[in-house]
Amino acid sequence: MKRIIALGVGLMVVASTAMAAQPLMVQGVREIGVSGMLDDNGEHLGLTLNGRLGYFAVDGIEAGVRGGVALRGSGSRNVTVGVFSEYNFDIGGSLVPHAGLGLGLGWSDIGTKHDSYVQIEAWGGAKYFFIDYAAFGLDACLLYATEDVYNGYDDPIDWILRLNTRWFF
After folding, report:
1. What's the CA gap between 120 and 147, in Å, rounded?
2. How far is CA 113 from CA 24, 47, 69, 72, 152, in A?
3. CB 163 within 8 A of CB 136
4. Dist CA 165 CA 71 (whole Å)
5. What is the C-alpha separation between 43 and 46, in angstroms, rounded?
6. What is the pLDDT of residue 21?
7. What are phi and psi of 124, to 5 degrees?
8. Helices (H), 67-158
9. Per 3-state DSSP, what percentage of the chain is helix, strand, and coil (rounded to 5)?
10. Are residues 142 and 122 in contact, defined by beta-carbon separation less than 8 angstroms?
11. Looking at the DSSP assignment, which residues form a beta bridge with residue 86?
12. What mean pLDDT is predicted for residues 16-32?
């Protein structure tokens, strides 16, 4: 009898968790998203911090502003600001696939070299709502810049996998 009660309680907890994690992505909702990365290229330690603020203009369609700062060693800085739009595919659960596009301006400072550039970013991925107003996400991103600012400042194209958190209110 104890096993049946324990199994019943366990099933109720799992069911209530699944019911509570309904995505909050309807018209009028705002989102704050943050992501970051700490890496070491063998010569210098690098830190990248990104943030975004979005607004759902229509159910599932978000538009907003984004920005980021990247620091590597003592002589390399990179700042980006821009706008983005993201479409969220409603598949009726707590896992929500999405695709997005961003356009921004960037400034890079590498010792004595200073560059301004335009950045285009496209991504696709999914976010998992662990509660109805918060989610973890994973995106595969393709980045293009009008200057060589990626991969040790030798390439205008890069790709990254980005893990992020998103908060909806």
Report:
1. 12
2. 44, 20, 17, 14, 13
3. yes
4. 21
5. 10
6. 65
7. -145, 150
8. none
9. 10, 65, 25
10. yes
11. 62, 100
12. 75
Q: How confident is the model at residue 165 (pLDDT cuts 50, 70, 90)?
A: very high
Say yes or no to pLDDT of 153 above 90: no
Where would I find the H helices in the chain?
Answer: 2-20
Non-local (6+) Cβ contacts of 7 within 8 A are: none
4 in helix, strand or coil?
A: helix
Q: Are 128 and 147 in contact (CB under 8 A)?
A: no
Q: Can you tell me whether residue 169 is helix, strand or coil?
A: coil
At 43-63, the pLDDT tens digits run: 778 899 999 999 999 999 999
In the chain, the N- to C-terminal Cα span, in Å, equals: 43
Structure tokens at 37: 């990365």
Per residue in 60-103, pLDDT tens? Answer: 999 999 999 988 877 788 899 999 999 999 898 899 999 999 99
- CB-based contacts of 34, cutoff 8 Å, min separation 6: 49, 50, 51, 52, 164, 165
**What pLDDT was estimated at residue 12?**
52
Q: What is the mean pLDDT of residues 126-141?
A: 94
Nearest to 68 by CA among 76, 58, 59, 78: 78
